[in-house]
Design brief:
CATH class of the largest domain: Alpha Beta
Order of helices and strands: HEHEEHHEEHEEHHE
Helix content: 25-40%
Shape: globular
Radius of gyration: 19 Å
Number of helices: 7
Strand content: 15-25%
Number of domains: 2
CATH architecture of the largest domain: 2-Layer Sandwich
């Protein structure tokens, strides 16, 4: 019973993926990360933030590096609907990979010792958490580390565009895959992930993740985008053809931790 509880604890931390494996395993030819698991840990102003950083850096990350080859990003919230907040983003080649990873991690005694200590602390490790599984779009790049680590951890902007219907979401994908990404790159917006939520809140949606060197660089890039003549034209044509294809935009600003593999 003890091992079952510990295995369940790990899967909860990494997203409870055992429920969807068979239905969502891509072909063997699929390269890189096909899925991304986003975990949002909602904390309170207390010892929870330093404790989750200690667990992630000294407990989870060493075991993860031995068992997982995909990208991983660890961030603290800067601006979010709930603060304080901690977010992990893990790239997976398939959902089946999560099952294998779960077994490897729960066989790692260092990880299990850190997990027990985290859960048995003076207060709960977090207030609650949410999980989102995102499938990368065909036009999404692969998340890659920089050739040289940045002098300071980057800002990651997570945007979720909620569409009223799947038809409108398809129109949103077409706009992004067509002119919008080209305009992004011209003004200094370079997302590292575009995806569509497979399970999680606020479906259907388009989720994308963009790194910036600083908050000032982010502001400059988005101001340039808003003023870009081609974007003004593209947006107008999109609304005329399909209506308002993104009804709600949710924006979360994150800062990568100093120990994050991708920062």
């Amino acid at each position: 019973m003890d091992s079952v509880i510990h295995r369940r604890g790990f899967l909860e931390i990494m997203g409870g993926l055992s429920l969807t494996t068979s239905a969502m395993t891509p072909s063997a030819e699929t390269p890189g990360s096909t899925f991304y698991l986003l975990n949002h840990y909602y904390l309170r102003n207390s010892t929870q933030m330093p404790r989750i950083n200690e667990f992630m850096e000294r407990g989870l990350l060493p075991a993860l590096k031995k068992a997982h080859r995909g990208p991983a990003i660890f961030c603290e919230g800067l601006v979010a609907a709930h603060m304080p907040q901690f977010v992990t983003i893990l790239g997976l080649s398939s959902i089946a990979e999560a099952e294998i990873l779960g077994r490897k991690m729960t066989e790692d005694e260092g990880f299990m010792t850190a997990l027990r200590a985290w859960e048995d602390g003076p207060e709960p490790p977090y207030e609650h958490y949410s999980q989102t599984l995102v499938r990368a779009t065909e036009y999404s790049p692969q998340i890659q580390p920089l050739p040289e680590p940045p002098k300071a951890p980057r800002i990651f902007e997570l945007r979720v565009y909620h569409s009223p219907t799947w038809k409108q979401l398809r129109a949103l994908h077409q706009r992004f895959a067509g002119p919008e990404i080209r305009i992004f790159h011209r003004v200094g917006v370079h997302p590292v992930l575009y995806g569509e939520t497979v399970y999680g809140p606020n479906m259907p949606n388009l989720t994308y993740l963009t790194p910036f060197a600083s908050l000032a660089a982010r502001e400059t890039a988005w101001n340039a985008f808003a003023a870009d003549p081609e974007w003004v034209k593209v947006r107008k044509e999109s609304i005329e053809a399909n209506g308002q294809i993104s009804s709600v935009i949710q924006i979360t600003l994150l800062r990568a931790t100093a120990y994050s593999p991708i920062r």
